[in-house]
Amino acid sequence: MSTRAITEAASTEAAPLSLCSREPHVPADRLVAEMVPPPRFDSVRFDTYIPDPNQPSQIDAVKVLSSFAEGLGGAHASGVGKRRWFAKKPAAPAGPRGVYLDGGYGVGKTHLLASLWHATPAEPSLKAFGTFVELTNLVGALGFQQTVQTLSGHRLLCIDEFELDDPGDTVLVSSLLRKLVEAGVALAATSNTLPGKLGEGRFAAADFLREIQGLSAHFQPLRIDGEDYRHRGLPEAPAPYADEVVAKTAYATPGASLDDFPHLLDHLAKVHPSRYGALTDDLAAVCLTDVQPVPDQSTALRLVVLADRLYDREIPVLASGLPFDRLFSDEMLNGGYRKKYFRAISRLTALARDAKGLVAQ
């Protein structure tokens, strides 16, 4: 961003915040307490989901999930907190102990998953909701055994954007969910890949494929077809703005941040992804200058996590430079992590559209 742009903006308004100046430290208990649907999905319910009339699978999904939630209204499947000293341990529930929402980008999977969390008749402290990355980060913060102990008394665990990006995560999550199923915890997950196909195109070692197959047995797949609702009947995302416009908007918007995009990418490497949510605390908007193609895959995956946190919190993103659909190279978009990159493009595009109103203010 030019010095002139900053000088002109600073002459009339207070300086904006900077993501690059933030290095949040998040205690483990906050990670557990924040395992609830993100603010964007606070008010969603099954009756606020608007199925595409041309996609019967969307209507069927609401019915199946509503029944699934009702079925979780009784005692904990393991009998935790309900058993007497000489009571016989209840039998494990027959069949899959979870549902798996499979579909493309923007068909409302997260809306439905959050609706399931809200509809399940249990105290919020007995239900957990988080992304796959947040779940693995929780294990990293608490340790495996403590995570099992913490979540075993829950009625439901919802996992959004289920991904298996490396063999270690495959074994880790498979083992964790197996322990939780044995403890009677119901599971629900979303992803863009069927359970039996997780990991396809990323690694092919036979023992890890066996782990994936064992994991898929915990879920009843529920296919949800449709087009990305974020672009259904909506105008195209606005083109990037000039540096001067982005800077002026940042200075004029209370609670906005202003950062140079390449510098932000460098800063993300210094902050653990489990802290990206805290990185965005109290932000009203994110303003970025000089958006460029992401240089490598490690950086790209960190940006995906940040995009998820911004989208969860409905934080508009105003940018100059290249449009967001040119962030990732063709090689990245055709590789094993392509689903993550397309999700990030979709979400950043939606947030760029949200930011359009800031410029007019």
Describe what this molecule looks like in 3D:
- The radius of gyration is 22 Å and the shape is globular.
- 42% of the residues lie in helices and 12% in strands.
- The strands form two sheets. The chain has a five-stranded parallel β-sheet with strand order 2-3-4-1-5, sandwiched between helices.
- With 361 residues, it is of the alpha/beta class.
- It has 14 helices and eight strands.
- Strand 3 (156-160), helix 7 and strand 4 (186-191) form a beta-alpha-beta unit.
Concise structural overview:
The protein is of the alpha/beta class and about 350 residues long. It has helices spanning about 5-10, 30-35, 55-70, 110-120, 130-140, 145-150, 165-180, 205-215, 245-250, 260-270, 275-280, 295-310, 330-335, 340-360; strands at about 100-105, 125-130, 155-160, 185-190, 220-225, 255-260, 285-290, 315-320. The strands form 2 sheets. It has a 5-stranded parallel sheet with strand order 2-3-4-1-5, with helices on both faces. A 3-stranded parallel sheet has the order 6-7-8.
- Biggest sheet strand order reads 2-3-4-1-5
Which ranges are low-confidence, i.e. pLDDT below 50, for 5 or more consecutive residues? 79-94
Number of strands: 8
State the end-to-end CA separation: 21 Å
List keywords for this structure.
361 residues; 3-stranded parallel beta sheet; globular; 14 helices; alpha/beta; single chain; 12% strand; 5-stranded parallel beta sheet
Topology of helices and strands:
Blueprint: H1 3-10, H2 28-33, H3 56-71, E1 98-103, H4 109-119, E2 127-131, H5 132-142, H6 144-152, E3 156-160, H7 167-182, E4 186-191, H8 206-216, E5 220-224, H9 243-252, E6 256-260, H10 261-268, H11 276-279, E7 285-291, H12 297-312, E8 317-321, H13 330-333, H14 338-360
Parallel strand pairs: 1-4, 1-5, 2-3, 3-4, 6-7, 7-8
Helix pairs in contact: 1-9, 3-4, 5-6, 6-7, 7-8, 12-14
